[in-house]
């Protein structure tokens, strides 16, 4: 769902959308089954930047996610993106959930 939303927003905002820059490098437990603390721990090291050398000119990234609960997914992704050279990482989400 997040990819579909991102592509549509990209068309309307006239900004490029890259859907394969981040990749999940390890399988993790489903987030819905975990507490807030477990969610953060579950995603440590779960994401990696694919072909970072292709994106050296990018200094601002917007992450699109469908549901924001604890922020652990966005935090894990932002950490990896900043490590790859992004100066600023923002996020847009459609819904907020609580655990």
From the structure above, extract its key features:
single chain; 99 residues; alpha+beta; 24% strand; two-stranded parallel sheet; 3 helices; two-stranded antiparallel ribbon
How is this structure best described in words?
α3 links the parallel β3 and β4 (88-96). The two termini are 21 Å apart. The protein contains three helices and four strands. The relative contact order is 0.20. The strands form two sheets. A two-stranded antiparallel sheet has the order 1-2. It has a two-stranded parallel ribbon with strand order 3-4. With 99 residues, it is of the alpha+beta class. The mean pLDDT is 87.
Give a nutshell description of this structure.
With 99 residues, the protein is of the alpha+beta class. Helix content is 31%, strand content 24%.
Topology:
Blueprint: H1 2-13, E1 22-24, H2 36-42, E2 47-49, E3 60-68, H3 72-83, E4 88-96
Parallel strand pairs: 3-4
Antiparallel strand pairs: 1-2
Reading side by side through the largest sheet, how are the strands ordered? 1-2
What is the strand tally?
4
N-to-C SSE string, H for helix and E for strand: HEHEEHE
Tell me roughly what share of residues is in helical segments: 25-40%
Structural class, by secondary structure, is alpha+beta
Q: Largest sheet, described in full? A: 2 strands, antiparallel
